[in-house]
TrEMBL record:
Residue ranges constituting the Glycosyl transferase family domain according to the UniProt record: 200-364
InterPro entries: Glyco_trans_1 (IPR001296)
Gene3D superfamilies to which the protein is assigned, alphabetical: Glycogen Phosphorylase B
GO molecular function, one term: glycosyltransferase activity
PANTHER family attached to this UniProt entry: GLYCOSYLTRANSFERASE
Protein name: Glycosyl transferase family 1 domain-containing protein
Domain of life: Bacteria
Originating organism: Candidatus Beckwithbacteria bacterium RBG_13_42_9
């Protein structure tokens, strides 16, 4: 059997990760890109933005190129024109993206240049009825993403459930899909695995109460309103607890109204966004971690809570089951059901031995699943296989 050659990888990433535009170069995404770049002849990243960025910056041969527009659609258009130029100048042979509109732009680029397209699918929200109800434009985005998915040369997801949905709902051939979790970097994993409880820091957040933690943008998909109602139910049962929610977003005002309505001002604290370096500290301080989402992929916050070894209660959605086996490494509950959520939280608050056992189990599972170096190798291998495959 003749081995296929290793083709030169000239990749262009179309990304919505605004953290990449921070001039201090902080973040896990950039660390991953630096590892991917080592296998590439060219590695460029285009980011649409409605904020003027002084200049592009380059970190260890990773070229980060902002594309400014006063309105989002103008930023996308500028990104497309930049992508056309780079595809021609740098002989790009692979475009990778993970957004409905960016995925469509990548497919259009393929009509002009001899490239392969890989689309990352992290949380297949287009099959989720709750997501479709969140905004009228989601129906249009569903159509765009479906159009791009069935035309992509390859798909990457972070969990087996999304692969099952892609093959079942869209008849995507299983061999076109690779399952690779977006693992935190080795340094980041160590920061969480060895995080210690700072008692003064914990006291500043929760006083002497049991601390429940939720982390994520304040958006409808996180369904924090259900979590707030579950907190009210627990307070009715006289549990001395405090919920700390880390994140910012458009649902903040509704959440504040709900907190006031349930008279939970002393039990629920919206602390906003926290610095990257502080996250291991706040996870270590928590007694329990909760996810109340209506749809997810394999959430970053879940991985981080697991690495710390916290007992976890989560809705049974998306890729959560990649880490949480119900009653073995956490508790899974129905979505949008505050009674079930409150009962699961109560169960772990009332049984510290069970909570500690589940925490140890999920930490062990996270260490097994989240192999950063293996993830890098598998992704680069998937790129080479795409470039070696017959052109569609």
């Amino acid at each position: 059997m003749i081995d296929k050659p290793n083709p030169e990888i000239r990749v262009l990433i179309l990304s919505l990760d605004k953290a990449l535009l921070n001039q201090n170069g902080e973040g896990d995404t950039l660390i991953r890109f630096q590892e991917y770049q080592k296998a590439c002849k060219y590695f460029g990243v285009l980011i649409p933005t409605t904020t003027i960025i002084p200049k592009l910056h380059k970190v260890d041969k990773v070229k980060l190129i902002p594309n400014y527009g006063k309105l989002p659609f103008l930023a996308y258009w500028q990104l497309y024109k930049t992508a056309e130029r780079i595809c021609q100048e740098k002989l790009i042979n692979l475009v990778v993206t993970n957004d409905a509109i960016l995925g469509a732009l990548a497919i259009w680029l393929r009509s002009r240049f001899p490239i392969k397209v890989q689309i990352n699918i992290f949380g297949l929200e287009i099959v989720n009825s709750q997501w479709l109800k969140e905004r009228p434009q989601n129906i249009f985005l569903k159509w765009i993403q479906e159009w791009a998915i069935i035309r992509a040369d390859g798909l990457r997801t972070d969990n087996l459930e999304d692969k099952r949905l892609l093959t079942g709902c869209y008849s995507v051939a299983p061999q076109k899909i690779v399952v690779i979790p977006v693992s935190p970097s080795l340094e980041r994993q160590k920061a969480f695995m060895f995080a210690k409880i700072d008692k003064l820091f914990k006291k500043s957040l929760a006083g002497h109460k049991k601390m429940i933690l939720a982390v994520g943008s304040l958006v409808k998909a996180k369904d924090y309103l259900t979590l707030i109602k579950a907190m009210w139910m627990l307070k009715q049962r006289k549990f001395d607890i405090r919920l700390i929610i880390v994140g910012e977003g458009p649902e903040r005002e509704k959440m504040e109204q709900s907190i006031a309505e349930y008279q939970l001002n002393n039990a629920v604290n919206l602390v906003g966004s926290l610095p990257y370096q502080k996250m291991p500290l706040i996870f270590a301080a928590a007694d329990l971690f909760v996810i109340s989402s209506t749809h997810e992929g394999l959430p970053r916050s879940l991985m981080e809570a697991a690495l710390v070894g916290k007992p976890i209660v989560s809705t049974d959605v998306g890729g959560v089951k990649a880490l949480i086996k119900n009653r073995q490494s956490g508790l899974l509950v129905k979505q949008k059901n505050p009674s079930h959520l409150a009962a699961a939280i109560e169960e772990l608050l009332a049984d510290e031995e069970k909570a500690e056992r589940l925490g140890r189990s999920v930490k062990k599972e996270a260490k097994r699943l989240l192999d950063f170096n293996l993830g890098v190798k598998k992704l680069v291998r998937s790129w080479r296989e795409l470039l070696n495959s017959d052109k569609q």
